[in-house]
Amino acid sequence: MGDFTRRGFLVTGLAATAAVAAACAGSGSGGGSSNSGSGGSGGGGGDITLRFLSNHPGSSKATEQALIDDFQKANSGIKVELLDGGKNYEEVAQKFQTSLSGGDKADIIVVSDVTWFNFALNKQIAPLDDLFAGAGLKPEEYVDSLLADTKFNGKHYAVPFARSTPLFYYNKDVWKKAGLEDRGPKDWDEFAQWAPRIQDAIGSDKKAIVIADGENYLDWVFEGWNWSKGGAYSDGWDLKFTTPESIAAANQLKDVMSKWGRLATTPENDFGAGLAAVTLQSTGSLKTISTSAKFELGTAFLPGPAGRSCPTGGAGVAIAEGISAERKAAAMKFIEFLTNTVNTSKFSQATGYMPVRKAVVDEPSMKAFIEKNPNFGTAVRQLPVTRSQDNARVFVPGGGADIGRALQQIVNGGDTAAVLGALQRTIQGKIDSQIKPKLPK
Question: Which N-terminal residues, if any, form the signal peptide (predicted)?
């Protein structure tokens, strides 16, 4: 099951040579104006109109449409229709799933770290490797582990697009008032030591920390917290919810949140409004928080040892199975353009999501952007020391939601060991009934 066990650490990072930068700075746009030999644009067959189903991660609808417009100018035989997939990745997945049983199926779909595997397992999205060359897509130009995150049975099922990690966001004004150093805590034990001072500084009507509730990715932001304490959701397909380390981490979450924090549907909004001094949120929320915050904003790595404290996350773009070879070729041509060096730089600057091509750090506008926006630089520096996620969260259908609900139950006072025991039984049942029968022998 080598391809099913995610690599433990992202070791490649974003560094690239000037030669690589020069080689792919125009990738996908200059060459993309000519028609692929495998079809998909121009010729006597008329135009192709591709349907692109997206939740517009990071409030990116205008940016996505601008990139579509640029692509259409360079590829006169291919049109792209941008479809609203809903407010989050789960709603996109549901709309795509519904379309499979009737109606107009999307050709290109935004699939998240949590949703892609089930579609791949059930042969609803296509393996992409055989389409790369025809679109001029060079896999080695992507951040290796971001591309590897959607590899199953030796094939890639999505190309990185709106990739993210959680960040530790903090209110520097509160930090100064509390007399703290201008940095994030080394680990969660240190945060717990700081929390009373942070709470006093921000005031009793507000909270030291606000994080997502169980319906809004508490399971994701706690994953790194759990790792930092030596716990895990799983190791491969071996579940680890009930280990002493995982129980201790969940108990610390309960203790911190009961004394100094609360859960919220939109923690980035509450934090930006000054209602809390800390939040853990996606890099994709950076622009929103930076715009709304009326205080000096700080960002830091997630607390804990580098390399075992921060998960990858976010989404890629996939191609539906069951469409014609011509449509697949055209779709891959668009995906290559959407994620080329210049365009991933534009998308990252507009949203805060991670640049997915190695050469982006040498792209002039990105270098200037990081210099002007050091908080975004924090996210880029953290990327090489992040860790791919546990199977129990991202490969089990509904696993993330199950974990989120259990963690919320614990925060709300539930018995930690009992709740995690019940969670482990639920997840194991799904693995046994929904995944193992479909895995290659």
Answer: 1-25
**What CATH architecture is 166-311+396-435?**
3-Layer(aba) Sandwich (3.40)
**Closest among 133, 162, 141 to 344, alpha carbons compared:** 162
pLDDT confidence of 284, banded at 50, 70, 90?
confident
Chain centroid to CA 288: 16
As a residue count, the chain comes to 441
- Work out the number of other CB atoms within 10 angstroms of the CB of residue 70: 17
In which element (H, E) is residue 376 found?
A: helix 374-382
DSSP class of residue 140 equals G
- Whether pTM > 0.85 for this model: the answer is no
In terms of DSSP bridges, do strands 276-282 and 166-171 run parallel, antiparallel, or are they unpaired?
antiparallel
Half-sphere exposure of 139 toward its Cβ, with a 13 Å CA cutoff? 19
The pLDDT-based confidence of 46 (bands split at 50, 70, 90) is low
Residue 15 has a pLDDT of 33
Q: Which two tokens stand for residue 72?
A: 């259409």
Domain boundaries, the chain: 48-164+313-385, 166-311+396-435
Distance of alpha carbon 105 from alpha carbon 284, whole angstroms? 27
**Residue 325: helix, strand or coil by DSSP?**
helix
Residues 263/213, Cβ–Cβ less than 8 Å? yes
**Measured in whole angstroms, how far is the alpha carbon of residue 135 from the centre of its chain?**
25
DSSP per-residue letters across 263-315: EESSHHHHHHTTSEEEEEEEGGGHHHHHHH--S-EEEEPPSSSTTSS-B-EEE
Read off the tokens for 104: 């107009």
Strand positions, DSSP E, 97-231: 108-112, 151-152, 155-156, 159-164, 166-171, 207-212
Query: pLDDT tens digits for 103-157?
Result: 789 999 999 998 999 999 999 999 999 999 999 999 999 988 799 899 988 999 9
**Residue 251 belongs to what H/E stretch?**
helix 244-260
> Cα-flanking dihedrals φ and ψ of residue 118, to 5°?
-65, -40
Question: Which fold is adopted by the domain 48-164+313-385?
Answer: D-Maltodextrin-Binding Protein; domain 2 (3.40.190)
* Distance, CA of 44 to CA of 201 (rounded, Å): 69
